[in-house]
Each structure stands twice: as C-alpha cells, then as structure tokens.
Amino acid sequence: MSQKPILRALKGERLPVPPVWMMRQAGRYLPEYRATRARAGDFLSLCYNSELAAEVTLQPIRRYAFDAAILFADILLVPQALGADLWFVTGEGPRLSTITDAEGVAALKPVDAIHEVLHPVYETVRILSRELPPEVTLIGFAGAPWTVATYMIAGRGTPDQGPAHAMKSADRAAFMALIERIERATIEYLSAQISAGAEVIKLFDSWAGSLKGQDFDDFALAPARRIIAALTTRHPGIPVIAFPREAGPRYAGFARATGADCLALDNSVAAEWAATELQKDGCVQGNLNPRLLVTGGRELESETRRIVQAFSNGPHIFNLGHGITPDADPDNVTRMLAAIRG
Ligand code: CP3
C-alpha cells in the first residue's frame, strides 16, 4: 500500500495533518516561474518544452514541499491538438478559432491524431516521474468536455458561456458531436498521461456551474462518469479528482454518480456543509479563497485553520477554491503552510 499522503487521502484515509497543494501552484506569482517562462518565450512554448515544463512543475515543490505536483500544461492544448488555432493575448487570456456548427465539428482532426501535438506533455510527465521526490504525488489533468467546449465555441473565455449555451439550443446534434469528440480525446490524452507516470487525474470543469437541471446531468455529470469509467477500466485503481466548479447543491452525490474519488471544492462551498454532505462519499479537496494569499494577515491564518478544522473528521486534501493569482505574495503561501502543518 502506498505511503504517499495524497494517495492515502484519496483512498479515504483521514490524516492528522492534511496533505496540501495549490491550483496554479506553478505560476506568475513565483519569480522563478517568470524567469523560466521568459527563457521559453511565450506560455504555449513553455507548455510544449518538456524540460522547462518539468522545471516549472518542480519549482513550487522545491520552495514549499507541497505533497503533490501538477503537470504544467493547459486544458486548451486538447482543442489545439484537435486542430483549433490557439494563442494567448497578454493580459487578456486565450483565443481560439471558433466552432459554430456541424461543419466546424466535422473539420476537427480525428482523436487518434492528438498525440502528434501532445507527445511533449507525455515527455514532461516521464521527466517528472523520474525527478520528483518519492513522497510527492504527480497529478495529470484535462479540462472536462463542457468547459473545453465553451472555449472552442466562443473562441475565448466568456462570463456566462453564452455562445456555448446558444449552440446547445440552436444545433443540439452538432453540440453533442463536439462534446463527444472532446470526451474521446480527453480519455486518450489522460490515458497517455497515466501510462507516462501520472498517479492521479484531475478533471477541471470550471464552468460546470452554468449548466442547470438536466443539462448539468447530460454535459457535466455524464461525461465525467464516462471518462472516469474508461480510465479506471484501462488503469484500475487510478484516483480521479473532479472539479465541477460552482456546482453548488449539485456537488452532493457527484462523487458517487461519477465514480470520482475526490471532489475539489470552489470558494462558494461552505466547508461545514461539505463535511456533512460530501465527505461521507470520500475525500474532499479545498477550499481556501485565493484572495487571502494576496491580502494575508490574520484572516489568512484563521481561514486556513477553520478549513482544516471543518474537514478534520474525514479525508481531506488542503487546496484553494480556485487558482492562485499572479499578485499573490509567495510569503503568504509559507504562512498558509505554517497554519496547516503547525
Ligand atoms: O495548476 C497548475 O499549476 C498546472 C497548470 C495549469 C494551467 N492552467 C497553467 C496556466 C492548469 C491545471 C490550468 C487549467 C486551466 N487552464 C483551466 C481550468 C482551471 C481554472 O482556472 O478554472 C482553464 C479554464 C484554463 C484556460 C486558461 N489558461 C486561461 C483562461 C488562462 C488565462 C488566465 C490566466 O490566468 O492568465 C490560461 C493561462 C495559464 N494557464 C497560465 C498558467 C500558469 C498563465 C499563463 C502565463 O504564464 O502567462
């Protein structure tokens, strides 16, 4: 049986001190990340440079001794591998060529072709599984089909995912074909990450909260269930963390319904509610507000302790409710860790 704290928590074990890592832990708040990114050129060049991507993955492990490392890549590499154009506008975020109809979906590359683009990511995983300290768990990841589709349809991030909702109503068949294509690509992508050495998979459904009623079941829950089923058939025992962000009450039962081993919680989930309603089904991960790593002070310490305390009767991985932001103070991360680890 594995002794790695993250794997123990994912198997349902309550640990006296929760293991910890942070969403976006390799990122612009770290001077060493900014330096390596400058060497790589732009963000996408860094994602596809296996040596440098492994280097930035390791930086927060060296600095903070986190219990997990998350592969450095992006959820939008899958659309790119399926043939979408992708670029990042500084200060604004991602831009993609858009898909609006069945023709656009049909023009995508076949799922088998994704590895031609994504193979450097698998090499990053191989490097990391050699270089990580033995107690650190390597997490691979992908975006969930709905969240990835929102970017492919709109060509950018949107506040309300309006274009994706519009295509879902106007051309249901084309929309479903797109979800299905992303889903199959995601299974192949994650399976290749596991074969290369990823020990845990996290599925990011950042926009799950904008799916209501039956749409939530059809486009957040069902794809997650099918992806997890396919992965666990091919790689028995592989733990999966699901992140149906802003799902609110729909977090309840999500782990059981999808087969996820752990639910990652966003900031809007009350820890006391989650401890009662979610922890009985397995591990939970979260959910400090990343803003506190900017503001620091007593509230950072008291909130960190409150979350540790609220989840102390069951399996818990300490994390943020969303990614750490570029304006966070690296010393506040040290303060957060001191409040967790004592
Ligand atoms: O967590 C990690 O350290 C691993 C790497 C990782 C990145 N993106 C690196 C990244 C992971 C797991 C992601 C996931 C991701 N990417 C999500 C889901 C999680 C979430 O945040 O809701 C989404 C929606 C994306 C798409 C994306 N990538 C956006 C919208 C942006 C721009 C916003 C921003 O923060 O700049 C990115 C860029 C991005 N992805 C950066 C990093 C470190 C910043 C790029 C830079 O260095 O300039």
UniProtKB/TrEMBL annotation:
SUPFAM superfamilies: UROD/MetE-like
Predominant cellular place of this UniProt entry's protein: cytoplasm
Residues the record lists as binding substrate: R24, Q25, A26, G27, R28, D74, Y151, S206, H322
Molecular function (Gene Ontology), one example: uroporphyrinogen decarboxylase activity
Pathway entry: Porphyrin-containing compound metabolism; protoporphyrin-IX biosynthesis; coproporphyrinogen-III from 5-aminolevulinate: step 4/4
EC category: lyase
Organism superkingdom: Bacteria
Keywords: Cytoplasm, Decarboxylase, Lyase, Porphyrin biosynthesis
Site-annotated residues for Transition state stabilizer: D74
UniProt xrefs under Pfam families: URO-D
GO terms for biological process, alphabetical: protoporphyrinogen IX biosynthetic process from glutamate
Ranges for domain Uroporphyrinogen decarboxylase (URO-D): 19-28, 139-155
EC number in record: 4.1.1.37
Stated role: Catalyzes the decarboxylation of four acetate groups of uroporphyrinogen-III to yield coproporphyrinogen-III.
The protein's name: Uroporphyrinogen decarboxylase
Organism: Paracoccus halophilus
Upper lineage: Bacteria, Pseudomonadati, Pseudomonadota, Alphaproteobacteria, Rhodobacterales
Gene: hemE
